[in-house]
Amino acid sequence: MVLGELLALGTVPTIAEIILGFLSIFFISATSLILNDYFDIESDKINAPERPLPAGLVSERDVILLSIVVAMLGFITSYMISLEALLVIILVWAVGFLYNWRLKRAGFIGSSYSKQKVYFLLFFSSGCEIS
Length: 131
What we know:
By secondary structure, the chain is mostly helical. The protein is built from 6 helices and no strands. The protein has one domain (about 1-125): Orthogonal Bundle (Tetracycline Repressor, domain 2), CATH 1.10.357. It starts with a helix and ends with a helix. GO terms for molecular function: transferase activity, transferring alkyl or aryl (other than methyl) groups. It is a multi-pass membrane protein.
């Protein structure tokens, strides 16, 4: 990430740029994982019944609220970088939501998304600067 920021900024990124870039990616990735658990609850009831959601340790409502809070943290930290960073993070979030909701069951499209997300996040971390 720091190397990407160095290339995008043409200078050594500040500590704030490094931290905000990391946090925005961290929060949006976490949101995708939370939503994955929510949308996979039926298969987890069979394959991983000990997980918190299928075991009833947390409610579906709590998982949705957590995903909203974590996504908002990702949006806020990316906005602190720049408006462009926020727009990119919203796009990453939307694609992650679509993947968890429908695309992962779409064969080739679903499997290719998982690989492309890594490259997209690397692009994001290298192409944004603080305004």
